[in-house]
């Protein structure tokens, strides 16, 4: 059977992930993501109203025109998890393919919400839920399987396309967590089994490949957060926390520790309400019944007023804005645009790390400066990454023993440390180790 892989997006950047695999007459598309930094750099861009081609020209969504070179029919569009760099272009591109979108329940719900917000295209693709561990026939000869992985968002999987020529494992994004705060540990046993059955190709996210050692478990970030928050138990002023709103496990820890130190947690900001509300509705997390979640400007301001009236020392606002996004809640608080007064000595907890990218770094610098000018004390980097480091990558390559490897989710510089590692497994650049760019075709079996 002919096997061909189109590396459509995310092979020159972190963002706008999209890869298509053709096995005989069947094509499966993995991820359709957005490169948010290409959107944020322009003022007042409303992607909801923009045409696909304009977004392609901006470098914001994958240039899927290369799909016309791929023979066969698209049988499924498979986003791996709910981060925007993996699902953010579905509302702009999926309608061009007559295929269902297949994903885990939490991811499907986020895709559904994204499609609803789209104003230019009506995406009518069927939405099919499949749990981790599930399998689905793709045409007569291929089968799709979801293997449970751990990442900085719940319900993440690595899809595997089983073909007569061997398995194709799409390995974006994960860390190896054996003690996650929410959900099941990574299913390494299944990966080792798939490795024994034979892996034709492994496509892997190289984000932290240049970092030594292993990525700590989410339970380590939880302990770090506990240490910081318990140390503030006697502080009788304002404490504000921020984290990735899609990071439900972290939000859960913040909510629990707020309660432990005698503060009422409250989630503020549109995306806080969106992700935590969705996770709670789908029973992925059990929040206290009285946990307030407010997204709309008016209800947020009303809550801030209530906090100021009843005493800041009784609350822990958990807000958006960990990257200093100009319109997010924490940045607005820093600019004094909300009824919440930050006073000398008040604490701001960043349960996040700045995404190392100039736009983020600049915005975060500004936001932090504004907070410090009001006297805020900053607790930074209470966080663990969602991506594998060097030893995690080693373990994956050791488990899968792939015949071919395609490094992804980085630029050329980011690929380099992964290439060095993969060479230790006998893979050869230009032969079985395919260092590539956006818009290329790799023929694995002719
Ligand atoms: Zn991700």
How many H/I helices? 14
| Spatial sequence of strands, sheet with the most strands | 7-8-9-10-11-18
Second CATH tier, the architecture of the largest domain: 4-Layer Sandwich
Uncertain regions spanning at least 5 consecutive residues: none
- Report the helical percentage: 25-40%
Proportion of beta-strand residues: 15-25%
Count the beta strands.
Answer: 19
What is the straight-line distance between the termini? 7 Å
Number of domains: 2
The molecules bound to the chains, other than polymers, are: zinc ion
Overview of this protein structure:
With 446 residues, the protein is α/β, with parallel strands linked by helices. The chain has two domains: 272 residues, 4-Layer Sandwich (Metallo-beta-lactamase, Chain A); 162 residues, Rossmann fold (3-Layer(aba) Sandwich), CATH 3.40.50.10710. 31% of the residues lie in helices and 22% in strands. The protein is built from 14 helices and 19 strands. The strands form four sheets. It has a six-stranded mixed β-sheet with strand order 7-8-9-10-11-18, with helices on one face. The chain has a six-stranded parallel β-sheet with strand order 14-13-15-12-16-17, with helices on both faces. A hairpin with an 8-residue loop joins strand 1 and strand 2. The longest helix is centred in the C-terminal third of the chain and has 16 residues. It is globular, with a radius of gyration of 22 Å. Zinc ion binds next to loops.
């Amino acid at each position: 059977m002919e096997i061909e892989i189109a590396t459509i997006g995310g092979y020159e950047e972190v963002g706008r992930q999209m890869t298509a695999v053709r096995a005989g007459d069947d094509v499966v598309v993995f991820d359709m993501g957005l490169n948010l930094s290409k959107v944020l750099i322009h003022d007042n861009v409303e992607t909801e109203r923009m045409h696909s081609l304009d977004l392609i020209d901006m470098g914001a969504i994958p240039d899927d025109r290369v799909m016309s070179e791929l023979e066969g029919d698209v049988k499924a569009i498979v986003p791996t998890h709910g981060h925007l760099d993996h699902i953010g272009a579905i509302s702009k591109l999926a309608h061009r393919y007559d295929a269902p979108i297949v994903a885990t329940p939490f991811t499907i719900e986020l895709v559904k919400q994204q499609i609803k917000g789209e104003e230019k295209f009506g995406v009518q693709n069927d939405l099919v839920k499949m749990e981790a561990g599930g399998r689905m026939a793709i045409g007569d000869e291929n089968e799709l399987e979801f293997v449970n992985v751990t990442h900085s968002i719940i319900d993440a999987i690595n899809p595997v396309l089983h073909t007569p020529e061997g398995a194709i494992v799409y390995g974006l994004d994960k860390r190896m967590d054996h003690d996650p705060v929410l959900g099941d540990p990574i299913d390494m046993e299944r990966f080792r089994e798939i490795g024994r059955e034979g892996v034709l190709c492994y496509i892997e996210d190289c984000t932290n490949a240049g970092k030594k050692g292993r990525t700590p478990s989410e339970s380590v970030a939880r302990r770090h957060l506990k240490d910081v928050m318990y140390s503030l138990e006697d502080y009788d002023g304002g404490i504000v926390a921020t984290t990735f709103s899609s990071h439900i496990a972290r939000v859960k820890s913040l909510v629990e520790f707020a309660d432990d130190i005698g503060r009422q947690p409250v989630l503020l900001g549109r995306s806080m309400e969106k992700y935590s509300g969705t996770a709670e509705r789908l029973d992925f997390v059990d929040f206290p019944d009285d946990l307030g979640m407010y997204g709309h400007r008016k209800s947020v301001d009303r809550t801030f007023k209530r906090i100021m009236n009843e005493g800041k020392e009784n609350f822990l606002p958990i807000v958006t804005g960990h990257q200093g996004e100009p319109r997010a809640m924490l940045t607005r608080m820093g600019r004094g645009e909300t009824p919440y007064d930050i006073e000398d000595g008040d604490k701001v907890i960043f349960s996040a790390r700045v995404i190392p990218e100039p736009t983020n770094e600049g915005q975060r610098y500004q936001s932090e400066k504004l907070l410090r000018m009001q006297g805020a004390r900053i607790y930074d980097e209470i966080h663990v990454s969602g991506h594998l480091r060097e030893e995690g990558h080693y373990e994956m390559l050791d488990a899968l023993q792939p015949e071919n490897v395609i490094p992804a989710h980085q630029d050329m510089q980011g690929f380099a440390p992964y290439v060095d590692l993969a060479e230790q497994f006998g893979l050869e650049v230009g032969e079985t180790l395919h260092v590539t760019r956006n818009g290329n075709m790799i023929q694995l079996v002719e």
